[in-house]
Amino acid sequence: MFGYDWESLIWIGIGFGGQALFMMRFVIQWWSSEKAKKVVIPVAFWYFSLAGSLVLVIYAIHRKDPVFIFGQALPVVIYLRNLHLHYKGQGRSAAS
């Protein structure tokens, strides 16, 4: 199919899957903001960001693309930190 072997097609599927996860974060953010009638960044935004980046890092490592690896791996730390701050803040507000 299109001159690709099955392994290549699987990796292309993984790459597109990562892109789809990453794109869904914007759909979720838009939908949440529309419902709230104000700009909202739901926690699902960070989960989709993290999942999309991790899948894309795996894809980039497979492709041996250092620019792509760096561009997707560095934000993983930020997404993890934002999730940590979210749950840390929830515990703080629950204790109040």
UniProtKB/TrEMBL annotation:
The alphabetical list of record keywords is: Membrane, Transmembrane, Transmembrane helix
Q: Which InterPro entries match?
A: Lipid_A_biosynth_N (IPR011499), UCP028440_lipidA_biosyn (IPR014546)
> Which species is listed as the source?
Dechloromonas denitrificans
Q: Which GO terms describe its cellular component?
A: membrane
Q: Which lineage is the organism of this entry classified under, starting from the top rank?
A: Bacteria, Pseudomonadati, Pseudomonadota, Betaproteobacteria, Rhodocyclales
Any idea where the Lipid A biosynthesis N-terminal domain is?
14-85
Q: Which GO terms describe its molecular function?
A: lipid-A-disaccharide synthase activity
Q: Give the highest taxon in the source lineage.
A: Bacteria
Pfam families annotated for this entry?
LAB_N
The residue ranges crossing the membrane are: 6-27, 39-61, 67-83
Q: Which GO terms describe its biological process?
A: lipid A biosynthetic process
Protein's UniProt name: Lipid A biosynthesis N-terminal domain-containing protein
Q: Does the keyword Ligase apply?
A: no
Task: Say if the entry is tagged with keyword Membrane.
Answer: yes
